[in-house]
Amino acid sequence: MDLEKTKKLCAEATAGPWRWEVRRNQHAVSLCGGTPRFDWSVMEFVRWGMGGAAPRFIRAFPDGLKILERADFFAVPIEGREHHAHWLQALSHPDANFIAEARTALPEAVARIEELERENATLLEAIEKIVRSTSDTPRESVVGAAVLAAARVAELRGMTAAVAITVSQPEDGE
Predict the structure, then answer these.
(1) Is residue 57 part of a domain?
(2) For residues 74 and 92, is the Cβ–Cβ distance under 8 A?
(3) Inside any domain, residue 90
(4) Mean pLDDT of 102-116
(5) Contact at 8 Å (CB) between 21 and 29?
(6) Residues 21 and 71 grouped into a single domain
(7) 3-class DSSP string for the chain
(8) Cβ(30)–Cβ(41) below 8 Å
(9) Phi, psi at residue 171, to the nearest 5°?
(10) Chain segment 57-106, per-residue pLDDT in tens
(11) How many structural domains does the chain have?
(12) What is the pLDDT of residue 163?
């Protein structure tokens, strides 16, 4: 994944969160961004020629049959705005929800990947220091350094860790 390209896409896209709205009296379905009452249309559908342009989504039946239904088939009242249900509803379909949620989930995923890459780099540095400092050191000291590295990992993750390692002494003849 090209994180810089993905970050640029996120930064340039319409502000989120996104949601689908169905306006039955206007025969319109829109993907909107921002907060209700002060939002922007991210995507709308318009008539092209004499045909319609409403999106359709798959409707699956228990027997395995799948058909395409116009988006308004999946319209549901918006929580807290039920009094507007006669003219404004939300679109509730897994594929439509995926498209809308991607606006929020993708920037969060990018941020988490960057966080993990930074943590990885820090851990690799710690491991390299341990290896360099223990190349000619007895086993007990290497294990002790590993305990310190584990404590550092816990610290980096913001956790309180109690690390207990019992170093077994080699038996006679080993």
Answers:
(1) yes
(2) yes
(3) yes
(4) 90
(5) yes
(6) yes
(7) CCHHHHHHHHHHCCCCCEEEEEEHHHCEEEEEECCCCCCEEEEECCCECCECCCCEEEEECCCCCEEEEEHHHHEECCCCCHHHCCCCEEECCHHHHHHHHHHHHHHHHHHHHHHHHHHHHHHHHHHHHHHHHCCCCCHHHHHHHHHHHHHHHHHHCCCCCCCCCCCCCCCCCC
(8) yes
(9) -75, 160
(10) 888 899 988 887 888 888 899 899 899 988 889 888 888 888 888 888 88
(11) 2
(12) 33
Tokens of residue 93, six digits:
């379909």
pLDDT tens column, 1-58: 677 888 887 887 777 788 888 888 888 888 887 776 677 778 777 766 676 677 888 8
The distance between the two most distant Cα atoms of the chain, rounded to a whole number of Å, is 91
What whole-number distance in Å separates Cα of residue 19 and Cα of residue 34?
Answer: 9
Alpha-carbon distance of 81 to 16, in angstroms, equals 19
Structural tokens at position 40: 């922007």
Rounded CA separation 18/11 (Å): 14
139: containing domain = 134-174
Place of tokens 């610290």: 155
137 C-beta neighbours (distance < 10 Å), count: 12
Same domain for 32 and 87, yes or no, is yes
In a domain, 128, yes or no: no
Retrieve residue 56's tokens.
């359709």
